[in-house]
Batch of 2 targets.
Target 1
Amino acid sequence: MSRSRKFAKHLLNFAAFVVVGLGIGYLTVDLAVTRGFDPAVKRIGGWTFWPQEASPEADPYTRAHFASFGKFGLMQFEALEFRTEQDSSGAPLDQHCTYVISGPSLPGRWWNIAAYEADRRLIANPANRHSFNSENLIREPDGSFRIIVSPTPHPGNWLPVGDRGPFRLLLTIADPPGNFRTNPATVPVPRIQRESC
Amino acid sequence: MGRLLFWLLAAILLGAGTHLATVLFSPAVSMASVMSRFHAAAPLNRMTVLGPEILGTVLREPNPDIVYAVCPYDLQAGDLLIDASIPEFYWALSIYSNRGDNVYTLNDQQAGVSRLRFRLQLEKPAFDLQEVITGDEDAEEAAEVQIQTKDDTVLVKTPTADGLVMLRAFLPDQAYRARVTEQLAASSCATAGPPAP
């Protein structure tokens, strides 16, 4: 083998090493920071919950997760935050579709459900509505609630979204009861059912 | 075969290095850029209510049912005095370090008053030569005296000289926005000048 061919082979090996190495780094960071893993993140009924959010004692993964989008969060004794990018069947949330979010009333000082673009900005809409909270939503006779997420107007609690792209829902429970904090799995998180697309 | 194993091992090591470096160092970089976003939007050591038009440019995942006011602080010129006017619905004051850690939080129920003053001080580093020489009992005694003599002011310590004070006030409905904004805007934040000798 000539010297130049040998050199080219080494160069190729090195390039492959760099690409594969950085690839492994990128993929594992994406998995551990963007998606998260137990115990840094808890998954409850399709919603995700990061118990260490905003805490000075947060683990490096929680810290990296929230720093990646510049969140100034609240610690769990002040508010619990549950996020989801998928419906209850596990399919990704799509702004083109119509969903029904339903659940029992939640304890705590107040709570709300808000919709965001994938980049965590509010979804611009002519109705200028981005959320429903425990005080302003219309309840069912038994106290439970139904919110319709759809690009087209609906009677009742209509939460408008755009007409394309993924979206994210955020459930915030302010001043949550102690048992929600010690055992977040007991939080009766709302169900998200896809009605039509 | 041995050579392939060598490159594979090297790639895994590079991947692990990339992973660790990203997880450990990226939060500081991201938070620095987030802080500069706040500095561009709100003057230093001043309380600014974030109107809907500016909210989206500085805050990610803003809660649409909350009116926010922020005071980016820098304690190099001295302590920060915060005079908080507490609106009638849920309210919380949160102090963040420049890492986005929520180092202090108080809500309206815990405060129990409609107006409250805070003095924000830089926490002494964990290792203080003076303290080692004189013994930390004196320092503790001095701190207690300080809290007692300023009984109308809550003394709060932060680990970093710069960071963010954030006020959150709940909007049960958008109809209350003007009222809650006005109440929140009566809060202020100012530097106390160099500490007394």
Note: Residues 138-149 of chain B have pLDDT under 50 and may be disordered.
Target 2
Amino acid sequence: MASKLLQIKAISGHAGTVPGANMSRDYDVCKLVDTTTCIGCKACEVACLEWNGYPFHPTTFDNTYQTMPDTAWNYWNLIRFDEHTASDGTFSWRMRKDQCMHCADPGCLASCPADGAIVQYANGIVDFNQEHCIGCQYCVTGCPFNIPKFNPSTKKVFKCTLCSDRVGAGLEPACIKACPTGCLHFGSKDDMKDLAERRTKQLREHTAHKNAGVYDPRGVDGTHVIYVLHDIGDPESYGGLPKNPAVDPFVRLWKGPLKWIGGFGIVFGALGIAFHYLRYGPKEAEIQGGGDNERHD
Amino acid sequence: MSDTTSHAFLRHGPPADRIQRFTWIERIMHWYTAAVYIYAALSGLALFTPYLYWLAIVLGGGPAIRFWHPIVGIGFVVGIFWMHHAWAQDLKLNADDQKWLDNVKYYITNQDEKLPPQDKYDAGQKLYYWGMFGAAIVLLVTGPVMWFPELMPRSLHWVLPVVTFVHSAAALVTIGGAMVHIYMSISNIPGSLKAMTEGHVSRGWAMLHAPKWYARISAGEKRP
């Protein structure tokens, strides 16, 4: 019986390449989405639903080919379709596979108050543990990419796991396996960065996309899902990909200085009260000439 | 065997030498607000810092406090508004209060004789009230946004961190105030706890802590 926990190097009688072969085995993983070769077939959407066991959603038509306006608690992977008119008047679709970016500095994890509800694995995957989730949705507040989605019936939040269950067993995520054009790649962060840089160089030198670039935003210390974009100067045109995503400064203030000010304030406030009691004590009322002393009540 | 020389009867109202300070409705109002406030504050602290997340377990688990905190929080705001209806007139700050606040160090160091005489509530109580009232309004405005963040349109998501920060800061202000309030009621001002449980204070208490109120009551004014 073959182990599912070990990385496979060769497979007998197998047509095609070994998933993830010929790559360095760095521990941190990365998904590369090359938007320039995406054809919007949505195989990744279907593969995501199938692997994670969710039913297909009723689609919402909004004059694009997009399945629905936004991702949902049980629909983690959505190709966003945006019409783009170039400066020379030519028209194109900008199609971007939207899912959790698996930030190296995750705002969801920084915001979460529930012990163990969000974990970041050493390989870079940020995963929600619904068993410990309390449904407060602070992760929604903390996420710069609008990814965590709330299930109102179970009061738990869900998002793309980067198929942590598959990756942990040495497999690539379901979306990668389904992609027919090779626009999705999976491997180590270094390998994916290298592949993405080579692809953007090719685009700049051999196509009209002179401003092609790699989207790996520094504001969140880089992400474990990176994009190749035709125009790195305008990520917003790809279904609202933020230009400079970062954990919000108010989240930092709330989880940093305010937490410490509040904690020290309560502790030193209690100590101050204890000091006041011991130094000054109660204000006893006594009527001159005797008679009514409050302690006699 | 019957004793005909002495006779016990049931007393109604405060003892003859004591003064009614709070009606039973005011006392219910206070303790209702205190109870919902304490739940909201403790459950809020559990969500505020991991060092106090154990409070969530004590109060029935994280999902339970996430469900109840906003509902009980609305109950707290209702209590504050009820208090506002009942007490706001007596809690208006005046010139004497400014003098009292300028000399608050004498109050803290138990040199009350150096302070201007106060009415039913001293300036410290008034400030505590207005602090809680202001914070309750801030909590009321920010709370529902945190209750249903999923309803916030994407273009307005930037307000979520701001609202969360402001909600936490306002709650910390109330916690600081409540700590002092509880200390003063159970220790620093003997007799004030009984004022809020059984409703009456001694004459000495009234003369010392609320001389202007005592003068009005002694002159036969009914209430306040």
Note: The beta strands of chain B are 18-20, 200-202.
